[in-house]
Every structure is written in C-alpha cells, then in structure tokens.
User: Which sequence fits this backbone?
C-alpha cells in the first residue's frame, strides 16, 4: 500500500518509475465495460498495468482495432472470420453474460410468467398482441392474464444485447429468422425503441403491458420483473447464476472457430437459453511488443484473479479449460516485431 | 520640430495602414474559413454517402425500409418523422408564441414585460438534453398513464380520425416528440415575433386606436399585415431548429423505423437515427454510408429552411 502510494506519487511527478504503470488502451463493447473497469482498478495495484477502456460500442471496437488505433478491441458479436484473417487478429472470450426478458403486467410477480422462445418471438413479431392470447394462457394455467395490449420495447441503439437476443429468437423461430434475422440492430416489426438498457427498463416500467429485454446484471440491480423461459430440454428455468453457468458449461468451446462459441439455446435441464460470451480482439503482430505483452498480461491476470469480481457484477467467468485454450493461443500466435512470442 | 512632425505624420499612418491590412486579411481569412468549413462538411457528407446513393439510387429517398441484417436502407421513414414532428411542433408552438408576443408588446403592464421576456429567452438557453430527460422521465409517463389511454379509449373508435389514436400507450412517440420540440422552439418564435411587432411604427397603431379600433383589430389590421413576412421568417427559424434537434427527440420519439398512422405510434427522425446507429456501424459498411447520406439530406433540408427564414427576416431585422 505504502509502496504503491509512493509509486503513484512518483508517477504523478512525471518521474519515470522502473516498475511504472504500463498503459494500455482498449475500446469497444459497452456490455462488459463495468467488469473491465473493475479489473482495471484491481490490476493497476496488482500488476502495474493501467487500462484505459472506452465503451464506444462493439461496432466501434471492431473498427478501432482494424485501424490499429487501440491496443485491443472489444466486441459482443464475434468478428467476421474473414476480417480476423485479413486484419491478422486474434479473438478470445473474457466473460459471459445472460439476457433476460422483463415485463410489466398488473398482478404478475417476479419470475411467475412462463414463456417459450417461440412465443417470445411471436410477441416481438407482433403476431401475438394481447396478454390473454391463448398461446400465452396455455403456458400459464395458474396465472390470470389481463385483456391488455402487449407493448414490446426494444433497444433503439445498435447493441450487443440486441445481437444476442435476436440470435436467440432466430434460433427458436423460423419466421423471425426469415423476416428479421440477427444483428446489433434489426428492422423491428413491432413495438417501440428506447436508448440503452436503462431506456428499455424505464419504458417497460412506464408502459402497462410492456415487455423488453435487458442484460441480467441490469435487471438484478434495478429489481425488474423477469420471466421464466423454456429451454431446449423443455424445462422452464428461472434466470439465476446457476442457470447461466449451466448453459455456459455446455458450450462446445474446442470446436468453435476463433472461440466464437454458440451458447444460445444450449441443452441441459438447468440451462438458461439466452447466454453469450463477449470477446477481445487483439493484433497478432503488435506494433509495440511491450504494449502487446501488457495486454496479454492484463487478461492473463483477469483469468487468474478476476473471477470473483466478475461474479459480483453478475457476469459468468469462463470455464478453466477454456482459459487454458486461450493461454495456448497467446503463446503461439501473438508475436512481437522480432518474431518472438510476447507471452 | 518640423522634422519630428513629418516623421510622426509620415510614420503613424503607415503603421496603422499595415495593422489595418493585417487585421483585414485575418478577418477575410476567418470569413472564408467558415465558408470553407461549410463546404468541406457538405462535400465529406456527400462523399461518405455516395456508396449508399449509388447502390439504392433515387429509391433511397422514397423507400421505407431500414434493415441492417439484409443491408437494405431507405430514408423515407426518418425524413417523414423529421418533417411530421417539426410541423406538428409548429402547429402547437405558433399560436402560443403569437400569444406570448402579443401579450409582451400590447397587453402586459410595462413592469412585467422585461421579466416575462427574459423568462422566454432563458427557455432558449436550456440545453436540449434537459428537455430530453424531462420528456422521458416526466412527460412520457404522464402520456402513457393518463393522456394516451384516454385518447385511445375515447377517440380511437371514431371514424376517420380514430386512426390517429391507435396502438399501445408507450408514452413516447411522434406526438410526445412534437410536444417537446414545441416547448423548445417557442422561445425562438416568440422572441422573433416580439421583436418584429416592436418595429411597427407607433404612429400607425396610434392612428388605428384613434379611429376607435380594439386591440385585436389593431393586431389583425395593422401589426400582422405590416410584419407578416418577418413573422413567417421567425416561424421558419423555429422550424429549422426543430428539424435538426437530436438529443431531446431521441429520448421520446420511440425510435422505430416504421411509418405509423397513429399520432402515438413510435417513429424516428434523421438526427435521432444517426445518433443511435452511428456507434454500431462498421467502417466502410453500407449502413455507415447510408447514415452519412441521411446527414447530407438533413443538411440540405435545414439549409433550405434557414435560407428562406433569413430571406424573409432580412428587411425587418436589418436595424
């Protein structure tokens, strides 16, 4: 503590310190930004690497790393394999997160409403328009659902959350896949848009009959009314860390190209169906070997010591086998200008 | 003595002349710089938007589609949203502004004119993000819980106009956006109207009052005909501001790329679509190019409106 204070004092004075903080810059996804910020805070004290992360959005992160204006980019949607190839970039996952539906129906309590992916897709397609629709009623025989118009609320800004949610809807509903598809922003057939997780949450809260989707962490922190979802095994699951971890454990990491593993709608009795990883993209040939090394060191530290921080913020840490795979990739693929591996 | 005097008279104008020349050159450069900047922005928007305009042709202007998945983009929805919200805002703001201007120039007691005038001008100084937050957290819930359910239940079933009041009560939407815009442009229109009403020579009004006209007759027969062109110019100024407003509208318009017949339906404007989609647009993508083309279209629309407003206001506000 005393030492780090002294180091801080020295670096404030502008005197170079031998073990001085190595600065690295990253930009991209907003979804993992809270955990990257916490990691940065902890890593500064632990290993002397200072991360400056700008949450400018996944698309922006991909653009920035393709132009090499930052040391690494971050993206919720995996980068196109051909772009990774042409840009000579390495992609690896850091943490996983879940997306949950939130609703505002009079007299329907937390995690009481049961939905299937198919019904959810039809709601957002605008083909199911009332809460007392027979298709919803059939799933919820013990709930008294009102004759109320459904007001679907979606993200208006392009976002990784939308990418994950629409990927799920495409996986479980053929009409959604044909008519809308999956992307960071799509052509929504029904409902209204709002800015950011907070905008979707507030609009859903204000609108009687509203239904929206947000990051799980956001729903927990703001005590939003979430729903159950039917998973691939036909079981209704409540959104919880156990359910998310179960889904994450079932992903086929070893065969996924560029670790772009598909965690959507995984089998397993306990699996929550809407889970996804978020990715870091870094150059395989960093211009500055020291900075390239610092980036890898930072994420190595995060893999080793960052799991608790991630759990506190309701993110799901990677399975340790996956971390080992990624570490191997760092060793063999990221090389400095002299051709030697940086890690 | 005389030598010194000639030196003085000879040198002083020379230095002043050089100083003048430098100052004049700097001023000209500054003036030209603005023109250059304007041109550069216009050209770079056009260049950026060219791939989209080439891909979609003139259909870009008329097609009501915005689908990033299939890479099909059209500008009809945001152009429609921009024009409809701005015009609705004018419909609400113009009568109110007219009332404010008449009150301030004809009816208000002299001691009250300054405070009310300043209050109107202060309204113009409120940052647009504040209007956005106020709209989203105060007005939208009020609309969603009280105004819209009532309108939908009572007016929604009427023939013809019923279509204007359909759909779920989101609180946000075209109508709410227009309402917020109206509040934002009132100070501009009201202040311009007040200023041009004050340019009416008192002798005209005094003569009218002298032959027994009432205040409303004076307004109708003397003030309005005398200032008509400038009043329209002031309205255009408000319209120009409403067209380009981004932040406040983005909060409350519902951000959906569909044309809705209902006033309460969500929509999008050019500015809010650009603000929302820009961060997730890949460099070199058709989407980014389409957004830049939209920016170009907005630039042209705003430029035309403001040019008309300047043209109409020029004769009155020259003093």
Assistant:
């Amino acid at each position: 503590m005393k030492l780090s204070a002294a180091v801080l004092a020295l670096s404030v004075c502008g005197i170079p310190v031998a073990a001085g903080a190595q600065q690295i810059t990253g930009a991209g996804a907003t979804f993992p930004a809270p955990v990257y910020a916490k990691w940065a805070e902890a890593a500064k004290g632990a290993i002397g690497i200072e991360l400056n992360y700008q949450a400018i959005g996944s698309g922006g992160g991909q653009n920035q790393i393709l132009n090499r204006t930052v040391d690494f980019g971050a993206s919720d949607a995996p980068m196109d394999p051909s772009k990774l190839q042409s840009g000579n970039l390495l992609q690896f996952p850091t943490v996983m997160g879940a997306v949950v539906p939130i609703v505002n129906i009079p007299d329907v309590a937390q995690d009481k409403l049961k939905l299937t992916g198919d019904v959810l897709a039809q709601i957002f397609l605008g083909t199911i328009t009332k809460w007392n629709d027979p298709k919803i009623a059939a799933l919820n025989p013990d709930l008294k659902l009102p004759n109320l118009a459904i007001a679907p609320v979606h993200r208006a800004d392009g976002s990784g959350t939308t990418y994950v949610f629409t990927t799920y809807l495409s996986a479980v509903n053929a009409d959604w896949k044909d008519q809308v598809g999956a992307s960071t922003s799509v052509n929504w057939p029904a409902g209204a848009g709002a800015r950011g997780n907070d905008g979707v949450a507030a609009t859903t809260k204000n609108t009687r009959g509203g239904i929206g989707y947000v990051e799980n962490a956001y729903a927990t922190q703001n005590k939003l009314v979430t729903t159950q979802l039917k998973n691939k095994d036909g079981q209704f699951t409540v959104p919880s860390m156990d359910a998310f971890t179960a889904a994450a454990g079932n992903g086929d990491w070893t065969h996924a190209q560029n670790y772009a593993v598909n965690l959507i709608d995984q089998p397993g009795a306990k699996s929550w169906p809407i889970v996804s990883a978020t990715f870091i993209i870094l150059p395989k040939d960093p211009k500055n070997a020291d900075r390239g090394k610092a980036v890898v060191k930072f994420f190595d530290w995060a893999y080793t010591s960052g799991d608790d921080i991630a759990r506190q913020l309701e993110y799901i840490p990677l399975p340790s086998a996956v971390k080992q795979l990624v570490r191997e990739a760092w060793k063999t693929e990221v090389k400095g200008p002299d051709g030697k591996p940086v890690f | 003595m005389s030598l010194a005097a000639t030196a003085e008279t000879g040198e002083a104008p020379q230095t002043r002349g050089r100083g003048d020349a430098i100052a004049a050159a700097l001023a000209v450069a500054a003036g030209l710089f603005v023109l250059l900047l304007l041109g550069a922005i216009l050209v770079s928007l056009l260049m950026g938007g060219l791939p989209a305009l080439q891909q979609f042709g003139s259909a870009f202007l008329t097609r009501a589609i915005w689908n990033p998945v299939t890479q099909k983009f059209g500008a009809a929805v945001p152009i429609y949203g921009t024009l409809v919200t701005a015009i609705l805002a004018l419909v609400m703001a113009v009568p109110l502004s007219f009332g404010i201007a008449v009150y301030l120039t004809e009816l208000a007691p002299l001691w009250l004119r300054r405070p009310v005038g300043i209050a109107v001008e202060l309204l113009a100084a409120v940052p647009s993000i504040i209007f956005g937050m106020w709209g989203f957290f105060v007005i939208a819930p009020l609309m969603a819980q009280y105004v819209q359910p009532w309108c939908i239940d009572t007016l929604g079933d009427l023939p013809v106009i019923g279509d204007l009041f359909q759909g779920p009560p989101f609180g946000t939407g075209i109508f709410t956006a227009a309402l917020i815009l109206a509040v934002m442009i009132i100070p501009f229109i009201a202040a311009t109207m007040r200023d041009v009403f004050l340019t009416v020579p008192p002798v005209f009004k005094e003569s009218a009052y002298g032959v027994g006209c009432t205040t409303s007759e004076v307004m109708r027969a003397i003030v309005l005909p005398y200032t008509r062109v400038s009043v329209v110019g002031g309205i255009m100024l408000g319209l120009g501001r409403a067209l380009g407003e981004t932040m406040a509208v983005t909060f409350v318009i519902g951000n959906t790329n569909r044309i809705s017949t209902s006033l309460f339906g969500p929509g999008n404007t050019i500015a809010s679509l650009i603000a929302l989609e820009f961060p997730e647009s890949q460099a070199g993508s058709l989407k980014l190019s389409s957004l830049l083309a939209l920016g170009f279209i907005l630039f042209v629309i705003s430029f035309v409106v403001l040019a008309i407003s300047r043209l109409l206001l020029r004769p009155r506000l020259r003093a």
